[in-house]
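Lab channel / #folding
Pinned by the channel admin:
"Please post every new chain as: sequence first, then the structure tokens as a reply. Keep commentary short and put observations after the output so the thread stays searchable."

First post following the new format, from NK:
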Amino acid sequence: MALLNFRRKETPANEGADSPEVEAFLKDYSIEVMPRTAEKVEDFTALLPAGTRVYIAHIEGTPIEDMVATAKRLNDDGFNVMPHFPARIIKDRATLTDWIARYQGEADVEQALLLAGGVVTPHGDFSDSMQLMETGLFDKAGFKRLHVAGHPEGNRDIDTDGTRLKVDEALKWKNDFQTRTDAEMAIATQFAFEAQPIIEWADSLKHAGITLPVHIGIAGPAKLQTLIKFAIACGVGPSLKVLQKRAMDVTKLLLPYEPTDVVRELALHKAANPDFNVSHVHFFPLGGIKTNANWAIENGGASAQPAKPAT
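Reply from TO:
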């Protein structure tokens, strides 16, 4: 099985941009930005269709003012804005209340991705997303949708033994939270590069009774060196070994990575198994937002018809 596709010509014509399965799978994809990367995009409406869900990653040290300003800009442009709420960088309940109020009052935000966050030591009272959910503040504020993090290859920050016991137990808790509340929820995952482990992980959730739909993380087109750097920083699992092996080949090191193969394999699996619980694609634009958006357009995503012609 091909893990990575580095040359567009390796993808048969009838399985690439013209594939109805890929087009259906990419429908309503989402994408992630940060305030500093969003600043580099002059006009999002020239790249993404109105209504696209845009996550805003909250990296440690980013002022809440920058996060809210980015959310307001994107909301004003007609996008569904979903900022991150990293538990470990939120000092206390008062801070969380303030953030929610700012997002709602200034940017009309009504959905959020709740996660532990990438820092080791919590800055205050919260250490995981479940504690954020238990405050009841999102429900009180009328948030309509809450997404939580998923890890197809596990998370060694949580399960240091390399298993998925703790992360899977947390997903069961979050699944139960959905059943006893009015929250509309989904799992947004870390990116991965191989289809079969993703399929097996998603199936294992279903067998465990976890019914939350999965928005699978996919790394957008990027230089291999860039991808390896982000994969290390994000704690990507076995996929990292694949990238490092590829990097040993100088000819492939100089070629850009594109997620053609993994998206196509997942799309074909979804077409053959309509009850497959991966419902959406969530892009991490590691090689740039414009590059990722153009890849989606070229590969027939239904979300890829921009509101106006790109210039």
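NK: The longest strand covers residues 184-191.
TO: also worth noting, Residues 1-15, 303-311 have pLDDT under 50 and may be disordered.
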